[in-house]
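Margin note: ligand = heme C.
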Amino acid sequence: MKWNNDRWWKSYKPGDKLKGGNAKQKLVSVVIPEEQGPSKLPSVAEILKLKGDVTRGKAVAGRCISCHVIGDLGLDVGPNLTGFGKRFPADVVARAIVEPSAEISLGFEGQHLRTHQDKLDIMGVVLADGDPVIIRSMGGITQSIPASDLKSRQPMKRSLMLSADQLGLTAQDVADVVEYLRSSEE
Ligand code: HEC
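Resulting structure:
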């Protein structure tokens, strides 16, 4: 192959790849289900009376990395959590897990897009706001929606994060993952 021949480079279409796909990219729905009523877990104060375990907490964190970078692992849909637990008190960390919609981190507000063509619902963080609109959702799924296919777009009132209840966490799991995030092991 001749590396200095620009035909190879043109056929690769770097621009399309960088934008997250070409016009034929198949879009998919990504919906974050709404919470069913208030948290069934005990209060944050009660949860923090439990003794957290770093090793178990590390295993619980496996449920967070589809949306968060923690140390060397994970996808950046929500904020990077490396060192987060060392910068904030335990109750702030626990509340963010039990009631994610109570306070939404700046720059990570969710948007709900709807498309014309396939009538898809796509919830995520808007990374680029032009034509196309680029949105990243849970699992790191990043999609480009041409402005002509955008039917509606609304800011979400709730968090894109699944709550502790939705992730199936017990009070002990929450205490453990808080302990893990506050440790030096992540
Ligand atoms: C479905 C995606 C998703 C999952 C799964 C998820 N999070 Fe989140 N998380 C987010 C998003 C998006 C935000 C930012 C919006 C917000 O503050 O609610 C966030 C915010 C946070 C914050 C606040 C960060 C800040 O800078 O204020 C903490 C702490 C947190 N998550 C911890 C966790 C932990 C621990 C888990 C696993 C038990 C987890 N998250 C699972 C998406 C997720």
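Residues 1-18 have pLDDT under 50 and may be disordered.
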